[in-house]
Design brief:
254 residues, mainly alpha, two-stranded antiparallel sheet
């Protein structure tokens, strides 16, 4: 657990269960008691194998049917609005409307808090290049749309859950000479890609065996990969999708 300034140690699983289950306290309440962030409490509950309640289950804070809000139909007094405005300006925030118009409407680009100097980030610029797009097609074709780690076939997954697989750089993206070299790229499903970059990947699978290595491998040492007819592969996938669509349509009409 990360360091905390709270003077209180985390509750035992038994005491946590008493607070959450028996007394019915919520995560914000427990976090307040122990001076911890609200998001820390669900982590404690998972660690203690205590089932969490769904959001909105505390009906005690809900408006009853037909009950009217105490503030309904009322407005802040001008004095209150001025105090709120003064407090926001004092915090460094600016009114978003000036003379009825958004303050960034005619402002120069550098006035935007997110202005980054007008330079396109390196990754964004590279991933839009024709070189990278051709490389992606080549990797998908070479790996036959299957995850190199677990073998999952992208053509059979639920697209609503996993719309695409990821191209993973075995060697760092920072090594410019290898960024678009298919020999150091592999296709991974989302779950495997997250695992590769997690602390549980203790063997450094699909990563350089030297954790801080930045010089890259020797191109002569990379495994030779046979060229793939990408256009033929894409055409085959399209034919497969068309066949699947025709079969599904027949099933609906039957």
């Amino acid at each position: 657990m990360s360091a905390t300034k709270s003077p209180y140690t985390r509750p035992t699983p038994e005491h946590l269960e008493h607070l959450y289950v028996t007394l019915g306290l919520g995560c914000p309440d427990i976090g307040w008691l122990y001076e911890r962030d609200t998001k820390t409490v669900p982590y404690w509950l998972r660690q203690a194998n205590i089932a969490t309640r769904p959001r909105g289950s505390n009906t005690g804070v809900h408006f009853k049917a037909g009950e009217r809000s105490a503030f309904a139909g009322r407005k802040h007094r001008p004095e209150s609005l001025e105090k709120i405005r003064a407090a926001t300006v004092a915090d460094g925030r600016v009114p978003y409307l000036r003379d009825g118009k958004h303050w960034l409407k005619d402002a120069p680009p550098e006035a935007n808090p997110r202005w980054a100097g007008g330079a396109t980030p390196l990754r964004q610029e590279f991933y839009r290049s024709d070189e990278w797009k051709a490389c992606v097609r080549s990797v998908w074709a070479r790996d036959d749309a299957c995850c190199r780690n677990c073998g999952k076939d992208w053509r059979t997954v639920d697209r609503a859950v996993e719309p695409t697989f990821h191209i993973h750089h075995v060697w760092s993206f920072q090594i410019a000479a290898l960024r678009a070299n298919p020999a150091i790229l592999v296709l991974l499903c989302q779950a495997c890609h997250q695992w590769v970059h997690s602390n549980t990947n203790t063997t450094r699978a699909w990563l350089p065996q030297e954790p801080d290595c930045t010089h890259g491998p020797s191109l002569d040492d990379l495994a030779h990969i046979e060229p793939v007819d990408v256009d033929a592969w894409i055409a085959a996938q399209r034919r497969g999708r068309a066949a699947y669509f025709n079969e599904s349509q027949k099933g609906r009409m039957a």
